[in-house]
Specification:
three-stranded antiparallel β-sheet; 7 strands; about 60% helix; four-stranded mixed β-sheet; about 375 residues; elongated; alpha+beta
Length: about 375
């Protein structure tokens, strides 16, 4: 056994005493292999501590980690979506800019003068009046007791004044006006209600549906008139449209059916077809002219307040300039039906200012024989309109 010296014993006793007074004497940190071994031991103890973590704590920790990861993924997706939307918006803006530049580069449009439009519609009316005169002279209807009631259903009337319509078919002046109204109402529905009907029934109906889908209110959208004009230009240059002769024949067949529905019989079918064809040819050309213009031309269907005519009305007249047996003095009263409509123009020749409109021609109207006062008529109209 190795002997211990007195000095060593003394030193040990002094160390023990110091530890009792000041606490354990700190040891210097280990270095080298000893320190590495100690770190591994601590890591091992920590690992052992995680392995002994309770299942509940482990579940909570995993859930929190998943939630954090999900939030980060959502934020990344939002950032990517915002970036895509910005690029899409920029691309749409570029496409619109290119379309506008293309339209402007192709825009060599020259509008026709209003006087030319007015002359064309007067030409249609002249041929229409010739047809109506033929219808009055060549009627084969023997029982006219109910003819006035039947005609009234097909005139250009307003529902607020319909009950005031009285057509005396024994009076040729009134009969002629009623037939003019019936014919204009037919043209309005079959040719002028949408811009493309004049190009044939099949193509016209398809394009009219497309136009209505693209522009619900074309008079509020300046691009609608450019689209319409360019489409008309392409139609006229293509061979997909049916000929005007076919369109005239189709219109004549429909008009003949209309006359049959009114129980209005005609003696000379050949002359009827000949005279109606001249009217339809002029009307088709007028409708195509309307469709080709940047301004919007329309047969004006007036609002309810204009169905009461003032003596000095700027919209319509009751004076019949073509028949001295009819009214020759302006009167006030409720409009029973429109004999020939006014022509309204929206916007200018370039298709701008579509919210502004002017009347190029006045309407010719037939006044009711008996009518309420203006205030009473407007009040009744409001009630009917609300219902």
């Amino acid at each position: 056994m190795q002997s211990i010296s007195q000095n060593q014993l003394h030193e040990n006793d002094m160390g023990t005493a110091a530890s009792l007074v000041h606490g354990p004497v700190p040891r210097p940190p280990l270095s080298g292999p000893a320190s590495h071994s100690t770190a591994q031991s601590r890591s091992k103890r920590s690992h052992l501590y995680d392995e002994h973590e309770s299942p509940a704590n482990t579940t909570v920790r995993h859930r929190n980690a998943l939630e954090t990861s999900s939030r980060e993924e959502v934020e990344e997706l939002k950032t990517e979506l915002d970036s895509v939307n910005r690029r899409l918006y920029k691309a749409e803006a570029n496409v619109q800019k290119l379309e506008m530049e293309k339209l402007e580069s192709l825009d060599r449009f020259q509008p026709v003068f209003d006087d030319h439009i007015i002359a064309k519609i007067k030409s249609v009316e002249q041929k229409l009046n010739t047809l109506v005169s033929f219808l009055v002279k060549c009627s084969a209807t023997t029982d006219i007791s109910d003819l006035g009631t039947t005609l009234a259903k097909y005139t250009w009337f307003n529902r607020f004044s319909r009950k005031l319509i009285h057509i005396d078919c024994n009076n040729r002046v009134v009969l002629r006006k009623a037939l003019r109204s019936v014919t204009w109402m037919f043209l309005h529905h079959e040719l002028f209600s949408t811009p493309f009907l004049c190009f044939g029934s099949e193509v016209g109906e398809q394009l009219s549906n497309v136009f209505a889908t693209l522009y619900e209110e074309p008079h509020l959208n300046a691009e609608s008139v450019k689209w319409r004009c360019l489409t008309v230009k392409q139609l006229e240059a293509s061979k997909i449209c049916q000929s005007d002769d076919i369109t005239c024949r189709q219109l004549h067949e429909k008009f003949q059916l209309r006359m049959g529905n009114m129980r209005y019989n005609i003696t000379e079918a050949g002359l009827f077809k000949e005279k109606s064809k001249k009217m339809f040819e002029a009307a088709i050309q007028l409708a195509k002219l309307f469709a080709s213009q940047r301004a919007i031309f329309e047969l004006f269907d007036p609002p309810k307040e204009l169905w009461f005519k003032a003596v000095d009305s700027e919209y319509c007249t009751n004076v019949n300039s073509t028949d001295e047996k009819d009214d020759q003095v302006e009167r006030s009263g409720v409009v029973a039906f429109i004999v020939s409509p006014a022509l309204r123009k929206r916007g200018d020749g370039k298709g701008d200012n579509l919210n502004e409109s002017t009347l190029l021609t006045n309407a010719f109207v037939h006044l009711a024989l008996e009518h309420p006062m203006k205030e009473s008529f407007v009040a009744d109209s409001n009630v009917l309109h609300d219902t």
